[in-house]
Amino acid sequence: METLISSFLLIFFAEMGDKTQFLALIFATRYKLYQVILGISLGIVFNHGLAVLVATFLSSFINIGILKIIAGVMFLLFGFESFILRIENDDKEDIRGKFGAIFTVALCFFIGELGDKTQITAMSIVFTGKNPILVLIGTTLGMIFVSLFGIIVGKIIKGKIPKNLMKKISGVCFITFGIEALSKSVPSQYLTFINTTAFSIICMMTMLLIYFKNKSVKKNI
Predict the structure, then answer these.
(1) What are the sequence ranges of the domains in the chain?
(2) Looking at the predicted structure, is the pLDDT value of residue 92 above 50?
(3) Sign of the C-alpha dihedral, residues 189, 193, 199, 203?
(4) In Å, how far are 89, 116, 167, 179, 206 from 25, measured between CA atoms?
(5) This prediction's pTM
């Protein structure tokens, strides 16, 4: 029981005010409550489960650096997608839409937290000889409870800020997280002036394409 409580508290206080809460907040403004909670839970269980497995068997079969780059690209894609204007039909939500939202949240939290301090904390606790199952339960619950604060704030904001504005704010947040993740994970020898300039141009061109696409959609409304 001591292992479970200490694991919970370590993660809970470590993640307070971290990007985890902001991600939960953003998703809470876009998806239904049960989709966000289920998605976060699945993503964190798999993420911390991987950490516990790696720590338990002392393996190093996964390249965290590459996965962090994938996470950065994924955040950028989520960000750009947030700026795309769509004509939505709220009358019906098919099963694909439901599970698409859950999968998106789960994947985002799974990859986004790879190599993060919470995953490393989970591994470190197991290295001290603690029960890996209790560590997994404690750290997962800690992340879920921290995320709940973000979800509550997201649900409060959702009814007070226009949906399109909220999507744009979430887009800016995702793009910021993506750039931050890439700047920390891409090897320094590749962060040259030419490469960063090319990256900036690609991002600007993407936003320009989205702008013209949105203009076309508005004409058809």
Answers:
(1) 2-66+79-171, 187-221
(2) no
(3) positive
(4) 23, 19, 12, 19, 25
(5) 0.65
